[in-house]
Amino acid sequence: MVVYNLDRLHRRPVELEHFITLADQHRTALASVSGEVDLSTDGGRLHARILGAVARAEIERKSARQTAAYRQRAQQGRLHRLQPAFGYRGLQLEPVEAQAVRDAVGWVHDGVSLYEIARRWTARGLTTALGNPWEGSTVATYLRNPRVAGIRTYRREPVVVDGEYVRGEWEPLLDVDTWQAMTAALASRGHRWPERQQQLLLSGVARCGTCGNRINSGGKRQGNSVGHRYRCVKNGSHINRTAAPVDEFVVDALVARLGQPDTVDVLSAAPTVDVGGLRVEATQLHQRMEGLSEAYADGAISVGQLRAGTERLRGQLAEVERRLQSGQRSAATARLVASSDVRAAWDALEISVQRTVLRELAGITMHGPGAGIRYVTAEQVVIDWL
């Protein structure tokens, strides 16, 4: 076997040991431009191992230099390389796409689903930076990216120096406060069923009174049409009933609740939240995650410790974002509460926004109708106002 140099044959000492065994079994001679290496003798094998160890050390040294250089560039706010990004042409804002991002901020606070935002962007003829159609998941990833707020990231985490986010060399689409409020609103939504499956008001919102699982929507053919029904996702025998009467009952109850004299005072009052303190805490958590990455790069901690520490800090960060969002209701809910005609304001909302409003105002538990009962009662659909 002929190679240019021995370090071109294998980059890892363990691979060399395997090759030595195979070469001995198959009586293979090794030749290189720098000279032959006789693997059949102990001296030749020692020479090969030394060369392999030196090559490995050079690789590790080069990797350490590159890692340090990448980290330094990140701490200076400089890009490693310029990649296409939605909302930009190079480092400058693209007006149409930038406006779409700003519109999305308002939609998020209104409770519009990510799937619906993707649909609206697509209707405007917008695609991702790579020319692909938008989906709910790609919208979520994009809006949560700190780059939108002009924040430099390193290993997918915001770079923090002296307790402050490092600003990138590009013009931000959003200011940091606006971006943090938006990501907190997204975090507060938690896990939901895919929007394509949520075509009814209470699907993914109400819970089964028997097992506590979510209620989903389904269909049952009735003649030439399909009637929408609510079903327990775990066991259809728990809940399986026509959706329309339940929706009508819940909406009537909502309109009646919001029509009470104390509604504006009670529902407009948000919990006292130290927004500034929570944002400082979020910055500190990002800084600690950056410290974990540096400790791993320096060999101070193992990959297992890195993963465990990062997972724990991300959990704490999610809780901070949830507390940030708890101090404010969505804009759609605020407008509905203050509306002089609640029924008309409700009917004007999209289904995804209506579900967001219900999540913020009430917890809904659904029970079976019972034998012989054809109408909806407060015992069957229990509404706990928050």
The gist of it:
The chain is of the alpha+beta class and 386 residues long. Helix content is 49%, strand content 12%.
Description:
This protein is an alpha+beta fold. The chain has 13 helices and 14 strands. The protein has a three-stranded mixed beta sheet with strand order 9-13-14. A hairpin with a 2-residue loop joins strand 7 and strand 8. The radius of gyration is 30 Å and the shape is elongated. This is Resolvase, N terminal domain.
Mean pLDDT across all amino acids: 81
**Helix residue percentage:** 40-55%
Number of helices: 13
From the N-terminal CA to the C-terminal CA, the straight-line distance is 76 Å
Shape, please? elongated
Strand content: 5-15%
Report the biggest beta sheet as strand number plus sense, adding barrel if it closes: 3 strands, mixed
Tally of extended strands? 14
Count of domains: 4
Strand order of the largest sheet: 9-13-14
Chart the SSEs and their pairings.
Blueprint: E1 2-3, H1 13-26, E2 31-32, H2 42-75, E3 88-89, E4 92-93, H3 95-110, H4 114-123, H5 136-144, E5 153-154, E6 157-158, E7 160-161, E8 164-165, H6 176-189, E9 207-208, E10 215-222, E11 225-232, E12 240-242, H7 243-258, H8 263-268, H9 275-297, H10 303-326, H11 331-338, H12 342-347, H13 351-361, E13 362-366, E14 381-385
Parallel strand pairs: 1-2, 9-13
Antiparallel strand pairs: 3-4, 5-6, 7-8, 10-11, 11-12, 13-14
Helix pairs in contact: 1-2, 4-5, 6-10, 9-10
Domain Resolvase/invertase-type recombinase catalytic: 1-77
InterPro entries: DNA_bind_recomb_sf, DNA_bind_recombinase_dom, Resolv_N, Resolvase-like_N_sf, SSR_resolvase
Pfam families: Recombinase (PF07508), Resolvase (PF00239)
